[in-house]
Design brief:
The chain is an alpha+beta fold. 16% of the residues lie in helices and 42% in strands. The protein has one domain: OB fold (Dihydrolipoamide Acetyltransferase, E2P) (Beta Barrel).
Length: 117
């Protein structure tokens, strides 16, 4: 129950940031992760024919399929939505959300169960 609440709060925070930011509205960009540089705390997002480098803010939430993640968890090819602020010529990622398709892991659903009792 608590885990669901935390996840929901982080997702809400991701999309509520532009409203909270006041006069300094955050912008949004969608694209594909092209490169991750964990040592520099940045990543490159590819959108159409344009690549944009983002520095990740210290407390920026990073979410993958609704779960809290780290910059190192991102992968090239991930589809991402980035809420960002521009400070001079530097793009600062304030929140990153990735929706990743099942990457070959085993996912199973139980259709029914029977009891031998």
């Amino acid at each position: 129950m608590m885990r669901t609440w935390k996840r929901g709060a982080l997702v809400l925070m991701l999309f509520a940031l532009p409203c909270i930011a006041g006069s300094s509205m955050l912008a949004q960009m969608k694209g594909t992760i092209a490169n991750i540089r964990v040592e520099k705390n940045e990543f490159v997002l590819s959108e159409s024919f344009k690549n944009t480098t983002f520095k990740v803010a210290d407390n920026a939430p990073i979410m993958i399929n609704g779960h809290s993640a780290k910059l190192a968890d991102l992968k090239p090819g991930d589809r991402a939505t980035v809420m960002y602020d521009r400070q001079d010529r530097i793009m600062i990622a304030m929140a990153v959300s990735v929706m990743r398709k099942n990457s070959g892991g085993v996912e199973a659903k139980v259709a029914s169960t029977t009891s031998s009792r």
